[in-house]
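Section: Multi-chain targets

For targets with more than one molecule, the full set of components is provided together so that the structure can be written out for the assembly as a whole rather than chain by chain. Components appear in the order listed by the source. The example entry contains two components.
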Amino acid sequence: MIDLVNIAVKAIFMENMLLALFLGMCSFLACSKNVKTAVGLGLAVTFVMTITIPVNWLINEYLLKDGGLSWLGLPHVDLSFLVFITFIATIAASVQSVEIMMEKFSPTLYANLGIFLPLIAVNCSILGGSLFMEQRGYGFAEATVFAVSSGIGWLLAIMAMAAIQEKLKYADIPKGLQGFGINMIITGLIAMAFMSFSGISF
Amino acid sequence: MIKAIKKSPAYNAFMTPLTTQNPISVLVLGICSALAVTIQLKPSVVMVFAMTFVLTMSNVIVSLLRNVIPKNIRIIVELTVIASLVILADQFLKAYMFDVSKQLSVFVGLIITNCIIMGRAEAYAMANNPWLSFWDGLGNGLGYGVILVVVGFIRELFGTGKLWGIKVIPQQLYDWGYVDVGLMVYAPAAFIVIGLITWVQNEWIERAKHK
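Its structure, encoded as tokens over all components, is:
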């Protein structure tokens, strides 16, 4: 149990997907103009991540891993070179289904996220989450906790960024630094704040 | 001769991403890996090669297939092409440069989701012939590379006083009280360094326009 709490705290704060591992930057920068869109996207990412990482865990454990096919009587088959292509296929399929559900149940959110929803498929935080899960050798429960808390961490970061950017409209920024430049520097400062969490454990 | 080359569309496709349309600092694509692998110079350079290879090849292949791919499933087809190329690059790195591939860890795999590649395949290769797409891919790969190498250079030099793993800041300076900037090896510095590079580049593009 303590292990799981540790994984959660680590994924949300110390090894935040966005601020420490730099994953999912593109949609983070594109969708952080206002808090509402940011929260929507953050929730979508959390949701997709919570689905895909456990599914990918199962696929990896029972199909791809060295010896994973032994339940089929094929203990010597190692398909682990296929992880990239299988993981990305699972992710693309889940994103598609989330898109269909969202269009049905929450049209306003769907209209707000618009073009960025398909982009979740190429949001590196999701593929990154699956790859980290595989690389660190998590078990099923650990992988699920890791998935949820990575999503929450991503949501927190994009919310903070969107709130700051809303205030930033009133600031007087040098011309060359406007836009991407100042966004990067703000992210750097948020990341520094998150860094101060490091060292916490239970 | 040089003038003729400069006028050709291939040259144009190659040079624009290197100068005014840099994928990272101007178009804001593919930032993730740019930040993550730049703690040292060596992984940055290896990453640039892997990335340029995948980008150029995927541009060429997608461009060759552009008339056969049905419009509805083009994203899946593009992803498949890209993922297969990334597997090639990853296996190659694991076989010949194992230590670097350990250092890059998941970031080689994450080339798949690098938006530059998808972006170029969607925006350029689907609409242009293979020859132009080749140069566009190469140009974008190197434009990405320039930023990566600069950031890697700054972070390694100031963070650890080394370049390519070799100490370059003389011991004398340390004796006089110089201290490595420890922050440079951590994540926040990457964001701030890239922000500052963009600032310089924007000013420079602005100047060039006014001339």
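Chain B is about 70% helix and 0% strand.
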